[in-house]
Specification:
Elements lengths: L1 H15 L16 H11 L5 H9 L9 E5 L4 E2 L7 E5 L5 H7 E5 L2 E2 L2 E6 L3 E6 L8 E5 L15 E6 L9 E5 L4 E4 L5 E5 L5 H7 E4 L4 E6 L4 E6 L8 E6 L15 E7 L8 E6 L2 E2 L15 E5 L5 H6 L1 E4 L4 E7 L2 E6 L8 E6 L15 E6 L10 E8 L16 E2 L7 E2 L6 E2 L8 E9 L5 H7 E7 L5 E9 L5 E9 L8 E6 L15 E6 L1
Parallel strand pairs: 2-9, 11-17, 28-35
Antiparallel strand pairs: 1-3, 3-7, 4-5, 4-8, 6-7, 8-9, 10-12, 12-15, 13-16, 14-15, 16-17, 18-19, 18-20, 20-23, 21-24, 22-23, 24-25, 26-27, 26-30, 29-30, 30-33, 31-34, 32-33, 34-35
Length: 526
């Protein structure tokens, strides 16, 4: 029957003027029920349609190879691992050339693996590792060749998803929104997505510019990502949050496109100003030394707006270094007081750095230096202005002596000036004469008697012999800067002329605590 069918097919074609393409079919060469069916169906087709049908099933001699079946098919979602990844060609292929033309690309790039051939028509690809989630592209370039050296009829492409979830995640909203202003510096950033996300991909796929460290938390079943900045945002600063396409959902599907969210921190962008710095009502000026400042004066800062207390306090310095107590009289007024008085007759530099900020976080525009000099009247060292001997009369009967109460100033005693030992006073009310030389010392300021007792002494210099001169008592005169020194005097004899030095060390202080700037000495001849 098969031979009869072929003869009928040939006759039909010859009658219609068609080429006899089945002359190659010989009995014993082609077997099987498939060819019988084909031949039978061809008898039902008019004209040369049978030729075209055969060409669609089997390759014509010298025709380009084609891929007639493959797994996975294009746009498959959910790969069946048991079926593998394979391609079926319609004719025998050049295996090495096909392998070079083959590629499988995943979300992280080209996937490596091994090739297994069944015959020369079926190619199977075995990946080195399990396929990750996300879209994959299988491609066979047209450079793949048949066994006869003919190129693939056309490039083959097939995209598929190993998992059934092929939908990429989407950013559905954010807080703050893109373009927002007035964002509080201590705010958290919330990013809302259409589904749960991979934490690892978030760490790699989110950036904040300018650089700002943050930690990540999840809310709403991992579909809301919360960024916790490690430090407050800077007021007035524009920030941009960048989301890369490497961000993935739990199935490995990546964000379809990168996204950016920009916002501005804070609403007050005006830098604070300094109204004034005063000490004792005197205004300090930047870069200009202000004199006549008292060492006990407080330092008062007046700002143009409410200031951040810690930041402002930490931005203030003083040189030479001094411990300062800080008191805020109001949100705009800061008062500094030295824990111990400043040093007298000393130049200080008060510095205000750019770290001072207002309550909105805006910084002072530039650092500044305010120098001052502590040379007010209560801050300068006392000086010895005059030393005189007090001329006195003996009180009469020696046994009825009484303490001296009157003195009569003489001209100032210069260095090595002579002290008249004929003018002495009785030192006590008891019987007998205790001789005392009375010196009147006039200081430039009221003095502290206690410190004078420690600082004042007589130092033997020349030919003192058996004489003795010692501080017996100090008392104030009519003014606080006038001191009467009663010195116990024991002469050595008429033939000696001793020289003593009245010494006042720099431990002597005035009533404001200022010390002598240096040791004082006056040489006295007797």
């Amino acid at each position: 029957m098969f031979l009869r069918t072929t003869r009928l097919f040939s006759s039909n074609c010859e009658a219609r003027g068609c080429p006899a393409i089945l002359s190659v079919w010989q009995p014993g060469v082609i077997r099987g029920w498939i060819l019988c069916l084909l031949a039978g169906s061809l008898l039902l087709l008019p004209g040369c349609q049978e030729e075209k049908l055969l060409e669609s099933i089997l390759p014509a001699i010298g025709s380009s190879p084609r891929i007639i079946a493959a797994y996975p098919p294009d746009n498959l979602k959910g790969l069946d691992p048991s079926r593998g990844i394979w391609l079926l060609f319609d004719q025998s292929m050049d295996t090495s050339q096909c392998e070079r033309a083959f590629s499988l690309t995943g979300t992280r790039g080209e996937i490596q693996g091994a090739f297994v051939w069944q015959g020369r028509r079926r190619l199977e690809f075995v990946p080195d590792s399990e396929l990750e989630s996300g879209m994959h592209l299988l491609r066979v370039a047209a450079s793949a060749e048949s066994r006869h050296g003919l190129d693939l009829e056309q490039e083959y492409r097939s995209s598929f998803f190993p998992n059934e979830d092929a939908r990429p995640p989407r950013l559905t909203g954010s807080d703050p929104m893109d373009g927002a202003q007035g964002v509080e510096p201590d705010s958290k950033i919330s990013l809302h997505f259409s589904e749960a996300l991979s934490i690892q991909s978030l760490h790699q796929g989110i950036q904040i510019s300018p650089s700002a460290g943050f930690s990540i938390e999840f809310e709403d079943a991992r579909s809301t990502v919360v960024l916790n900045p490690r430090a407050d945002f800077v007021r007035g600063q524009s920030y941009t949050i960048s989301l890369a396409t490497s961000i993935e959902d739990l199935s490995g599907n990546q964000l379809p496109s990168s996204r950016k969210i920009a916002f501005v921190a804070g609403s007050d962008f005006q830098a604070p100003g300094l109204e004034s710095i005063t000490m004792g009502g005197k205004i300090l000026s930047e870069g200009i030394v202000r004199s006549n400042i008292s060492k006990s004066d407080s330092i008062v800062f007046e700002f143009t707006e409410a200031m951040s207390k810690p930041a402002t306090e930490n931005s203030i310095g003083i040189s030479p270094s001094t411990d300062l107590s800080r008191t805020w009289e109001s949100p705009t007024t800061l008062i500094l007081e030295a824990d111990q008085e400043l040093q007298g007759e000393t130049q200080y530099e008060l510095t205000l750095s750019g770290g001072a900020t207002d309550t909105s976080g805006n910084s002072m525009e530039s650092p500044a230096i305010y120098p001052f000099f502590t040379d007010a009247e209560d801050s300068i060292s006392p000086q010895v202005e005059i030393i005189q001997q007090a001329r006195v009369d003996l009180p009469g009967d020696v046994d009825g002596a009484s303490p001296i109460e009157q003195y009569f100033p003489e001209p100032q005693i210069p260095d090595y000036g002579i002290v008249d030992t004929a003018h002495v006073a009785d030192l006590d009310e008891g019987p007998g004469l205790e001789r005392a030389i009375v010196l009147r010392i006039l200081f430039s300021r009221d003095m502290n008697l206690a410190t004078l007792y420690e600082a004042m002494s007589f130092v033997p210099v020349i030919n003192t012999g058996n004489s003795s001169l010692q501080v017996h008592r100090l008392q104030r005169g009519s003014e606080g800067n006038e001191i009467l020194l009663l010195a116990a005097w024991t002469p050595a004899g008429y033939e000696s002329s001793p020289v003593y030095a009245l010494q006042i060390s720099d431990r002597a202080e005035d009533s404001d605590g200022n010390r002598l700037s240096e040791r004082f000495r006056r040489y006295l001849s007797f």
